[in-house]
# Entry
Amino acid sequence: MDWITQVAERLRATGGRMTTQRRLILETLAQCTDHPTAEEIYQRARQRAPDLNLSTVYRTLRWLEDLGVVGTQRFEGERPQERFDPAVSAQPEHHHFRCRLCNTIIEFPAPLLEVLKQDFITHYGGTIESASLIFYGLCESCLQKVETYGPLSFNPNAITGPHERPSHSTGRAS
Amino acid sequence: MDWITQVAERLRATGGRMTTQRRLILETLAQCTDHPTAEEIYQRARQRAPDLNLSTVYRTLRWLEDLGVVGTQRFEGERPQERFDPAVSAQPEHHHFRCRLCNTIIEFPAPLLEVLKQDFITHYGGTIESASLIFYGLCESCLQKVETYGPLSFNPNAITGPHERPSHSTGRAS
DNA sequence: CCCATTATTGCAAATTATTTGCAATTAGTG
DNA sequence: CACTAATTGCAAATAATTTGCAATAATGGG
Ligand SMILES: [Mn+2]
Ligand SMILES: [Mn+2]
Ligand SMILES: [Zn+2]
Ligand SMILES: [Zn+2]
# Structure
């Protein structure tokens, strides 16, 4: 039984219905190797069903989030938008490195984190149910480029557009 | 020389001006022991200067962010709003635990994280410039309560209001 | 296979967080 | 004290996400 059928069954079990849209979104997610935004998932899915609606994408994603089928991530320095992580079912506890220049994301396991969790609990008590660890820096390839060509002051892959926060302005004229 | 004067000097050094509003916001931040949102900082500061404007708060916070005087944090399960961290200058590398029930945040140092960073770099190369680690779970006191009274299905301290995401709804009637 | 029930969709409008343009104000400088 | 550029307040723009509702479609039973 494949992933989609599995999810579908969990859905049915709670009185939910498997619809064309949901199947499409699941198929789209299954093909992701990245951490797309709702909008990106919407655009990818829409290529096969142009009348799919963004609300449906959001609703489906929230539902999958509740089911633990997708995770959500927010990365610093980005527009305040949520990114979805279809990989959580495959690798339940993985963490993220994000390159400040090319925005590449590397997923990695961190078994050592358990020690940190234990450490915390010994000091402060309580329980830890989940953890989010994000490293920010330069990926190997960007590091090479910087070493070769000197520091880049700009982000070559930066998403541009209004409502960005490129380098701070208090309003003074340039 | 106190913290505010220090920040003020850094500001001057780049052609900035120290204004009443900025001083007020800095004083407000200096008194924070938590991780307030822009709105919260605005409300606290406004008690002393009712005509302070929220835009000014945002602009000042972004400026402080660039200076590395405040940090920003986003916690899972919250409204998608940014929280500001006035403690970064005092404790440059500290991390966060957030209680799922009472929303308490505990700050803690994690020197062991260096090992994890090294581990990562040995595997994938590149460099790590910063790291964000957040633990989610139950704080000691909530854990006690749960053990005594049984699991609470609701969050006693939850921020409520529209645009929340309380427990997922696909739109079906209840 | 068709019907009834009700979950789900598409659409448009609402919400909320954050940013921005601009004219009026003000800090810093001499 | 006057000048100039930085900053503010205000209102409006932007953008991500959610929601109400009528129309549509999935499921289960007859
Ligand atoms: Mn991932
Ligand atoms: Mn903190
Ligand atoms: Zn890179
Ligand atoms: Zn607690």
User: Anything to note?
Assistant: Residues 12, 17-20, 37-39, 54-55, 58-59, 62, 79-82, 161-163, 170-173 of chain B lie near DNA strand C (CB under 10 Å from a C1'). Chain B has six helices and five strands. Chain B has a mean pLDDT of 88. The longest helix of chain B spans residues 54-66.
